[in-house]
Amino acid sequence: MSAAGVIKNLLLIAIVIVLIVLPLFIQKDAEFGGADGEAEKAITEINADYKPWFSPLIEPKSGEIESLLFSFQAAIGSGILFYGLGYMRGKKKKEEVANQ
Amino acid sequence: MLKKRIWILSLIVMFTLLPRTAFAMHIMEGFLPPGWCISWGVLTIPFIILGLFSIQKTVNEHPRTKMLLAMAGAFVFVLSALKLPSVTGSCSHLTGIGLGTILFGPTAMTVLGLIVLLFQALLLAHGGIATLGANTFSMAVVGPILAFATYKIIKQAKGPQGLAVFLAAALGDLMTYVMTSIQLALAFPAETGGFMASLAKFMGIFAVTQIPLAISEGILTVLVFNAIAAYGKDELQDLKILSKEA
Fold it and tell me: Could you give the ipTM of this predicted complex?
């Protein structure tokens, strides 16, 4: 990758980080719960009589277990993704050497 | 032929065994009346069937794109696990559908999205089994279709590749949440103001939260797409993302 390409990528990553961190400073007192929980509240406000007619079959035992499952998911995803990128990069290098 | 079947099967098994969290903050279990659950489910079925055929066709014609298919699935996997804070003071997560939609088309992502949502609902109590049809429709049908249309329109207009990828991913992500808001507003019209009042309310919760996240999703998709384009020119030519001359 060219130097300009690296700088461009780092800049893009920096924007993402700012987008993630900024809300924490803008909304100092917010709870940062899930948007789905907010929607539950809104439904109850619109229709106070509504009762959920079905509940999840299995729920993670605690917040810790849930975050374990989420990080497991992220780890597997990035594992496959970057294995693929590494594989493709190695293959391309080999082809380049063979063509010389 | 048999080998390919086995490969597809093992891919499906792989996806099903992994606990995945899907794209949006989805409609919660039990929070959509049964009639709506069934309707959205029925609407989604044709897209799943088209998606299965589409994946099989792509993989049969270009076996070397299998790696990319797995990577597109993995990208969804990573992004949908990341719950990020937003300016509204609540959290939501990314969808990751944009990359796979650009590479494999919208219906292929319906299949991947369904699997993700199913396991998220089963293992993480995120989204739900009863609301699976509605959530698949918003995240894996409507989102990818808008992402795909956006990408095609910008490419047709000879717009830059990066812009096409960015807008496709960002708008696809945002559209998922707009659709979720529409689904909830249809099922829960407000007593005063009806559908539109409810829509405004749910859009305020889901869609506004999602705007900065959609921008993040667009950027992350561009980064990964560029990496794939740098190393996988042949595969992208197979998928007709890059022309042969390029």
Answer: 0.84
